[in-house]
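thread: overnight batch results

M.L. [08:02]
morning all. the overnight job finished for the chain we discussed friday. pasting input first so we're all looking at the same thing
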Amino acid sequence: MSPIVGDNDFFEGLYKQKFKSIASEQGEFIYYDRDRAAIDLGVHLTRPGEKGREVSQTRIWFQLKGKRSATLSQAEYSRRGEISLTIKLADLKFWFASPEPIYLVLYVECVDKFLAEDVQEIVSRQWGEGLLRAGTFPADQEHVTVHMPKSAELTSVKWAEMHHHRSMRIDGPLFRGRPLGHRLDPLRCTLKKFEPAVFCRMVGRLLDVHGYDKKQDLDPALLFPNESFGSEHAAFTEGILHNRFEWVFQMSSEFGIGRQDDFRTDGEPLSAQGRCAVLIHGDPPSYPNGQALKQFIDSLMARGIRQFLVFANIENDPGYFGAFFSAVRGSILSCTPLLLGEIAYCLLTTTVVYLEFRESVSWRYLNYLWQ
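M.L. [08:03]
and the structure it wrote out:
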């Protein structure tokens, strides 16, 4: 008797071909020679460039499923807010633990639409980390039901959102047990001066990922009355840091190794959180006016603000550093300016921002971690 190609096989081939037709506009396909990974296919995403589509650093994997009209009618689809499907528990655990993003894609025949959602989102919504914990499911359970909202429709917006996914190397040297995705020593590298506008954007991103909520803009001329500032060369604000922003005073870090042992002293850790003023100085033309700075600090104190963060696009400059540091001496307000040595620590320990600005970075001093 000859093998039979049944209706389910035909249906599966149909929706897989439909998906590939859509996905072909978003990137290059990746296949397994043998179907042993419980993943149908991958797409190495591309984005529009000047000479054509440029290959990105993002790869997405997809597992495809389908719902036939005989199983889910259009009327039933309209009534529901989410669609359920049965998945092998072992496969779901494998996808959830994957180092690269895996999307579950469901083709709904009655409306000719695809729903697509990151498996991490599905699992986080239904079980969280408990999915992998022994005892969450009976020992003999082989399948689970997952629920996909109809709002997860696969659209051009969702394809664009997929570019936010990143995979990170974690097999290199660790920094205090943490994989950073690079081999650079955060404590012993110093940046070269940035182009001012790039510096301001980069520090702005560092603050953004630490939950900085700007409340008001200030005029840098308050501190530098004899200078003019372009909007891209300086940012002066007040706001709230919702997450602790940490850095290390590089001058207190030991760079060399002694003859007796390989122990090196780490620098003094500093941090800020809560209400604060922030100056991002992309092109410091001079030191702040001493009297104007003291008046500003007094105004901060009067309003209960005890932190002033200064980011300066300069290497070690005792005069610039000292102007701010001496102005707060004797008060309870903290202000230890971050120069390019301290900012290197912030950048290298905030991997997502480092990867965004990697091509704009040059190094004055470059030291590596080792295994």
